[in-house]
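FW: tagging you since you asked about this chain on Friday. Here's the raw sequence from the shared folder, copied in full. Didn't touch anything.
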Amino acid sequence: MLILTAALALAAADTVPPAPSAPVVEEPAVVVLRQPALPIVALRLSLLADDPPGFAGAGHMMQHLLLPSLEERVARVGGRVQAVRTSDAVVYTVVGPASELDYLAQTLRGALRAPAPGTAETLQALAALGSERSAEREIAPQYVRSALRARLFPRDLPAAGTEASLARLNSARLAEVWGAMYRPERVAIVAVGDVQVDGVRRAFSDVPAAGGGSVPRLADTIRAFAADTPQATRAWIGRAWNASDEDPATLTVTARLLRNHLRRRMTRSQVDVEHWWTHHGQALALVVATPDSLVATARRTAEGSLTALRDAVDETLVADAAAGVRREMLLFSRTPERMADVVGAFADRGEGADAAQRFFAAVDAVTADDVRALLERMITADAVLVEVPPQRITAS
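HL: got it, structure written out here
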């Protein structure tokens, strides 16, 4: 099994950050976790998400346009590629033989240039974005989460863009849009596998220079979620609290505690409690799906959930929750690409090379007093509320 603490310690050892007094160098940040026993490498390249105003979805559109060629090239050496758009970054991950580091890096460097698609490819990419955007609003669990996020973090626009931005992207010059987004210093590279930091740095030493492109600054508008509430066979209840100023480790443990607490009390409902954490901020989100007959009870339970947890929490519960969080991190990070994703997520939020290691240790240090203090602050804060009623089926 991959041991997270040991691997992250290697990341700190293999990463050479610039000296505090050194001038700013416009080049990617590089983090390397050496795993000599594995003859493969997972390379994760991310560009901080900053779609130009009025062109929301531009970064994800580029991914749709570039992914087919990336897949074809990586497959030549028996590798695979994944492209995702998070709230923080446009992310590409390739996994292949460590001996093909230079080739895989060359392929990824190609994702740092604007694509030059034909009309058919552009229309296909825009159609894919439109489908993703619709799915976010048509399916109840995604709708609740998206509506909560839209109210908590108004600047965190949908990765798939808006109706207005997709229309603009259809006629925009993509080279200019990309030039407004791309800067080498906004790129982060994480490598996990049988590679060394010098080799990775050398492989990414000639990333494209900043293009200096510009596009007009326009407004992105999103229609209100209430205008297209999805149908659902159960009632969905969402509550979320902005927690941007809170300690991330304490918030993660609290989310786990609240999930365990509510699942014991709401055995006939589906309960998820999540810690949302991006460069836009942090939030604690509660999403409940419940039968129509239990809506009133579920609503009351959700409303009083923070107070009930505060009164019930003790050191044993906190220790169990912290152990569960650390265990999930270990299990999730067992493959090189997932380890790269864990470390890369911290890098995309602007954290240091050892941020994942420090977070893993901080989770274990959370106490019951820490959780109670956080809950006290959140109890007095305003919650964001979203509900989707169950579909009413009537006989004709």
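FW: The longest strand covers residues 281-290.
HL: agreed, and Residues 4-203 form a domain with the Cytochrome Bc1 Complex; Chain A, domain 1 fold (CATH 3.30.830.10).
FW: great, closing this out.
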